[in-house]
Structures are given as C-alpha cells and as structure tokens.
Amino acid sequence: MYSGTAKDIRKGLTADCSKCFGLCCTALNILASNDFPINKPAGTPCMNLQSNYSCQIHSKLREEGFKGCTVFDCLGAGQMVSQVTFKGQSWREHPEIREKMFQLFPIMEQIHEMIAYTAEALSYDIPADLSAELQEKLEELQNLTELDAEDLLSLDLVVYRFTLNELLTAASDCIRKKVMGGLPRSKNITEYDYARADWMGRKATGKDLRAVDFRGALLIAADLRNTDLRAVNFIGADLRDADFSGADLSTSMFLTQMQMNSAKGDSTTKMPYYIQRPRHWIN
C-alpha cells in the first residue's frame, strides 16, 4: 500500500454529524462533572438533541457547561453505524433497532480507532514485512465495519487490539530509533521510555522531547509549550488540559482528534496532517 493511500484513509476518518442520528447524544452514558452539567443514562437522548438530530446549543456548548461534547470525536463511527450497518434507518422511525444501534456505536468507534492507528502506521517508512502485516490487519478491520449488527455485537475486540498493539509498537520503535540516530542525546531507547508515566502538571516548556514514548502516559495539565514532540508516540496518553501552545506535533504518532480536543493549543501549534485545529483553541 502506498503511504499516500494510507494517509487518505487516516485523514478520511472524521465525523459527519449530518449523516448520523445523534448517536453520541443518545448512546453514551454521561455523568455530571466538569465536562457535563447533567447526568444522562446510556440510550437516553440528551435534552439538547432536536428532532432533526442537531444540537440546539451547538454554538455555545462550552458556555453551557458541555465541554465534553466539544472534545468527543467518533472518527466517523456514527455515520458508519447509521448509514451502513442500519442502511439509513433511524432509531426514532424504527424503534425496533434502537437498542442494537446504541450498543453498536461504541463497538464501531473502537474499530474505527484501530483502523486509524493502522492506516497511520502504514504511512510511515517501515520494513516491508511489518508493512505487509499491518496491511493485512487493516483489511481485516475494514471488513469488520461491513458486518451486520448481530456479527458486530458478537466480536471480541480485545483479541484484535492485542495483536494490533504489537504491530503498532514495532512501527513506533522503528520510527523513533531512526530519529534517535540523529539526536545529540543518548541512543539508548530505554532512556526515551515514558510509557504510562505520570507527568500530571509537569513543567517541560521548550524541551526537546523528540522520539519519546508517551504510550498511556498521564499528561494532564502538563506545560508543553514550545516543546519539540516530533516522532513521539502518544497512543492512549491522557492529554486533558495539557498546553501545546507553540509545540511541534507535526510528526507525532498515534494522536487522535479527541486527544487534541481535550488539550490546549494555539495558532502556532504544529499538528499531524490528519488533525483539525480545535475551534475552541485560542487563535
């Protein structure tokens, strides 16, 4: 697979709310917190969801306390469930599919996330054998999205995640080692390992953190302004309120739109090609 094709697949995984039946506003459980002012059980429509499946406070979600809504991103899972799995049938007009549709939304969201990571990995300059394994995995995951509702509900996604994680780690290590070779810092890969590290509130302004592994790390409210984060692995990292103003994330790996939406940044933050600058960032 050409890297350009993989990039197109990754970039194409974006939500199109006009083709979804408000699944993120209905299927998910919401607990009152700093991100939401209300409790809403899974399967219950949000009080702000209108009959045309649009949000009546969309332009002022943050002002109304619905910060979490501006962070969430389904990677296109909503329209896939709505338009492909259920062939354009809505849960309002066809109440008999309501429960299954709501159950399937988070499942499809996970599949799309795995597709996103796999396509991104294939866009890198990695060994041919690893590329072949990832391409096989990508095709397998894409085929899952075409399954009917019953088959999707019976999937054991843990199995898919386990095998994919090994391939993604191999791709990340390959890219990171290449970058390490040109750095003045130590070439010992263990000295770049901050996987699952607790960096909550850490001050790291202006540091060169290229090729660091932040898999699953807690970076909540970390000060990463003007930081060089190229070739950094961010898969599964918690970036809530981390400040990336002026930072270089242009070649950071395995970032998601939701991670960036939960963070802070500005007009000078450099981001990967597939990330859209959050509208609530200061320009």
UniProtKB/TrEMBL annotation:
InterPro entries for the chain: 5peptide_repeat
Pfam families registered for this protein in UniProt: Pentapeptide
Gene3D superfamilies: E3 ubiquitin-protein ligase SopA
Name of the protein this chain belongs to: Pentapeptide repeat-containing protein
The organism's taxonomic lineage, starting at the top: Bacteria, Bacillati, Bacillota, Bacilli, Bacillales
